[in-house]
Design a protein that fits this description.
37% of the residues lie in helices and 21% in strands. The protein is of the alpha/beta class. Helix 9 packs across helix 11.
Length: 492
């Protein structure tokens, strides 16, 4: 993923001066050894500043972390810790930070060997709040060397997402299509998250596309597409145009990323796109997303943002799908009931025209877009990548600004079932526990649009922490049976 940061977490041990410094030194060494043995040293750095007890030590540690190229921080309480110096460490370090602490090792060493870090975390968290500072604190932040090493590893994708967001530009083309106002949302929250946005005209994109006609790189991109599609290449006559469009987007990104390191794109795909470009961009969107550059459909800016966060957290390809249609009763009866532990209302079909990467499809063909072809010549709608989504675990989620510029999110873990969809587009039969209630009391009640980001695996825990870290106060999830939503009728 070239469009993602590499995380390097600086581990800094802190110590309160009335506790033995050796407690923090030895516990830090044990922590680093435990991490190295299980995960290697690629994404951590042991700060050699012996121990942070004062503000002077804090400044020395920050300077050392910068020189070492650290972009994330772990404040490790080997003992009680200096609440002022350790929280100023978070303040002066320019990057996401976490806090964890050492558990006591043995009942045989509770005199000079007792560190009181359990208590120290309380003071540290209180001081972070006093200074309006944010730090990731694990669910249970006190542990052995190995347990703290695992906590740091869990922080890696969270830190990656936060770093990436602070250096992200979303490039969009055109306004949202008519009748798709659901994907339209105020951009104010993007700036609040530290994200830049560049909004362009479709005419600008069309001009850039025309300037790429005859680009000498087109044949090599066509060859790459042919190799990827294989027997699924059902519209070879459109490949040159698709390659021209792919190069247009990639060149635009390089020329327009400006001061930002990472980019996501919110693209236009209809209604005038097909008649002017003479194809649809779905397959190209899937290819860029596979390269780590998420491209959303229908100028869905918050969809692109959600995909980007999912890419950072999962370190994998994501997709954007409509929460689209119900599973027919006869399909449920024949292929799901008794074979999977889901009710009919737990299931639905996730679909989009053809923007899902080929590696996430069980089989695929690049062909024409059936819905658009109902009103347009088929040759204008070539360029979708169709096929059933590969069965397996998924996380459905979205970060969204409301019409009045409030930020909120939802997360739901489930799976794509091994059931043939018998339909068209990039599509799968999805199952999420208690989806029916979640659909009514979160998606409908909280006014979410029809698009949801899909990560291929269960990443709810990390996504939840990312959303908390960046300041999302409302994070909804698919509540289990017996846990009522605020608007759910208890007598129903």
């Amino acid at each position: 993923m070239n469009n993602m940061p590499k995380v390097k977490i600086g581990i800094v041990a802190v110590s309160r001066d009335c506790f033995p410094e050796s407690l923090s030194v030895n516990r830090r060494k044990a922590l680093v050894a435990a991490y190295a043995a299980k995960y290697g040293m690629d994404d951590i750095y042991e700060c050699p500043i012996c121990i942070v007890e004062s503000e002077i030590h804090m400044l020395q540690a920050v300077e050392d972390l910068k020189k070492a190229g650290c972009n994330a921080l772990c404040v490790y309480l080997g003992n009680f810790g200096p609440e002022i110096a350790e929280t100023l460490l978070v303040k002066h370090f320019d990057g996401p930070a976490m806090l964890c602490a050492a558990a006591e090792e043995s009942q045989n060493d509770l005199m000079d060997g007792r560190g009181d870090a359990y208590c120290g975390v309380l003071n540290a968290s209180y001081n972070l709040k006093l200074r309006n500072l944010k730090a990731y604190i694990p669910e249970y932040p006190v542990g052995t060397a190995q347990e703290c090493a695992d906590m740091i590893k869990e922080f890696v994708p969270i830190a990656k997402a936060v770093i990436a967001l602070r250096n992200l530009k979303i490039i969009s083309f055109g306004p949202r299509p008519l009748n798709f106002l659901a994907c339209n949302a105020p951009i104010k929250q993007l700036y609040n998250l530290g994200v830049e946005i560049e909004e362009n005209s479709e005419l600008d994109l069309f001009e850039a596309f025309n300037k790429h006609e005859g680009d000498e790189r087109i044949p090599s991109v066509v060859a790459d597409m042919e190799a990827e599609l294989g027997a699924g290449n059902k519209r070879p006559e459109v490949l040159a145009k698709l390659a021209q469009y792919e190069l247009t987007l990639l060149d635009w990104i390089e020329a327009h990323k400006g001061s930002r390191e990472y980019v996501a794109v919110a693209g236009k795909c209809w209604p005038a796109f097909q008649t002017q470009f003479k194809f649809v961009p779905c397959y190209v969107n899937s290819r860029l997303t596979a390269k780590g550059i998420p491209v959303s459909c229908e100028v869905d800016i918050y969809g692109a943002l959600s995909e980007f966060i999912g890419t950072a957290v999962s370190d994998d390809i994501v997709t954007l799908l409509d929460i689209n249609n119900s599973v027919p009763a006869d399909m449920y009866k024949e292929a799901i009931e008794g074979k999977f532990p889901y009710t009919h209302k737990d299931t639905f079909m996730g679909f989009h025209c053809g923007n899902t990467a080929s590696s996430k499809l069980a089989f695929c063909e690049m062909k024409y877009q059936k819905i658009m072809a109902r009103n347009l010549p088929i040759e204008c709608t070539n360029g979708t990548l169709e096929g059933d989504i590969t069965p397996g675990k998924i996380t459905f989620f979205r970060l969204q600004s409301t019409a009045d510029a409030q930020i909120r999110a939802y997360i739901a873990e489930g799976e794509v079932l091994d059931v043939r969809t018998k339909s068209f587009g990039a599509i799968g039969v999805f199952a999420i526990p208690e989806m029916g209630r979640f659909y009514r009391h979160v998606l409908i009640e909280r006014n979410y649009p029809h698009h949801g980001a899909v990560a291929f695996g269960h990443f709810g825990k990390a996504l939840f922490e990312v959303f908390k870290y960046i300041g999302v106060e409302e994070i909804k999830f698919n509540q289990p049976k017996g846990m009522l939503y605020p608007t759910e009728n208890p007598f129903a």
